[in-house]
Amino acid sequence: EDVPSQTFDNKDYFCGKETFPVYESIFTEEGETIRKIAIEIEKPPQIEIHVWTIRKGILHHFYVEKLSKREFEGLPYFKLITRTTLNQWKIFSEGEAQISQMCESRVCRTELEDLVKVLYLEKSEKGHC
C-alpha cells in the first residue's frame, strides 16, 4: 500500500509545532524610525503589530496594536520576513518589554536587532526535534 503523504493544510510546521507568518515594516522620517513587527495569529484571527519609535538610536515609544486581517491587508510597506512559533513570539514579547524599559535612556540598536533574530527559527535536522 502507498503511505499517504502528510499534509498540513498548507501551513508550515517546525518540529511538529505550527508556525505563523511574521512581517516587518521600517519607515524613516525626519530622523525618526518607526519599525513594526507583526504576527498573523489564527485564533482569534488577527494581526498583532508591535510598533517601535526610535530617535537617534533611543527607543522613544513602544506599543502594541491589534488589527483584523482585512485591515492589515490594506497597510502598505509590510513584507514577510520569517515564520515563527508561538513560543518564540512569547520570548520576543517578553524581551521587548525588558528592552523598552532598559532603552528609554540609552542607545539600544543591537539589542533591538538581536531581539528580532529570536523570531527566526533554525532549520533542524530530522530527528533533532
Automatic annotation (TrEMBL):
Residues 10-129 form the Chordin-like protein 1/2 C-terminal domain. GO terms for cellular component: extracellular space. One of its GO terms (molecular function) is BMP binding. Keywords: Developmental protein, Glycoprotein, Repeat, Secreted, Signal. Its main location: secreted. GO terms for biological process: cell differentiation; negative regulation of BMP signaling pathway. It comes from the Eukaryota. It is found in: Secreted. This is CRDL1 protein. The lineage of its organism: Eukaryota, Metazoa, Chordata, Craniata, Vertebrata. The gene is Chrdl1.
